[in-house]
Amino acid sequence: MISAILLAAGQSKRMIGENKLTKIIEGKPLIIHSVENILASSVDELIIVLGYQNEIIEKIINKNEKIKFVLNKNFESGMASSIKAGLNHLSKNTEAFIICLGDMPKVSSNIYNQLIKSRNKKEIIVPTYKNQQGNPVLFNNSMKEKIMDIKGDAGAKKILELNKDKILNLEINDHSIVKGFNSQKDFNSL
């Protein structure tokens, strides 16, 4: 079983009062693009970690039997708490999980499937674009305990630094894996 953890708990601080996940791009809220692309892939379960404005975000997302909503009450402490909240709700049958960012709507189902197809080559599959590490990152379930030790707002970057020998850098010819939507400027560039 392959699980995806979609981080959607952040406060959109760089958006000055707007929640980037609810902003409309190409006719629908940004978070919907991320959810639909994950569900269109061969992922078996999608754990959506909510925090800031959780009720608003949850209402936007259509219910689906693959989706499990998790509330991170400590979302203000940073990304690590959201990753851990997601990990704590993985299915017992999960063999690998993908940590996905809610503000990367252009990552296609094909990219998720490429990560999944490569999962038996190494414990960590990192998509790269022109030698730049991107997201989402796939982890074998054997990495779960190490990730549970992360703290703060660095996400799983520290895990990548400490486990370089376990990483397969998978070249993806698509800049969407390095393109997050964090500020008004990012939305204006559409």
Descriptive notes:
There is one protein chain. The chain has 190 residues and is of the alpha/beta class. It is 26% helix and 24% strand. It contains seven helices and ten strands. Strands 1, 4, 5, 6, 7, 8, 9 and 10 form an eight-stranded mixed beta sheet that branches. A two-stranded antiparallel ribbon has the order 2-3. The longest helix is centred in the N-terminal third of the chain and has 10 residues, at 30-39.
Q: What's the helix and strand layout?
A:
Blueprint: E1 2-8, E2 24-25, E3 28-29, H1 30-39, E4 45-50, H2 54-60, E5 67-71, H3 79-87, E6 96-101, H4 109-117, E7 124-129, E8 132-133, E9 137-140, H5 144-147, H6 157-162, E10 167-171, H7 184-188
Parallel strand pairs: 1-4, 1-6, 4-5, 7-10
Antiparallel strand pairs: 2-3, 6-9, 7-8, 7-9
Number of DSSP E strands: 10
Instruction: Return Rg in Å.
Output: 15 Å
What proportion of the residues is helical, as a percent range? 25-40%
The fraction of residues in strands falls at 15-25%
**What is the helix/strand order?**
EEEHEHEHEHEEEHHEH
Which overall shape is indicated by the principal axes computed on the Cα atoms? globular
Number of helices: 7
Termini gap: 35 Å
Q: Are there runs of 5+ residues with pLDDT below 50, and where?
A: none
Biggest pleated-sheet summary: 8 strands, mixed
Query: On the 0-100 scale, what is the average pLDDT?
Result: 89
Structural class: alpha/beta
Keywords:
190 residues; alpha/beta; 8-stranded mixed beta sheet; 7 helices; 10 strands; 24% strand; globular
Quick summary:
Helix content is 26%, strand content 24%. The protein is built from 7 helices and 10 strands.
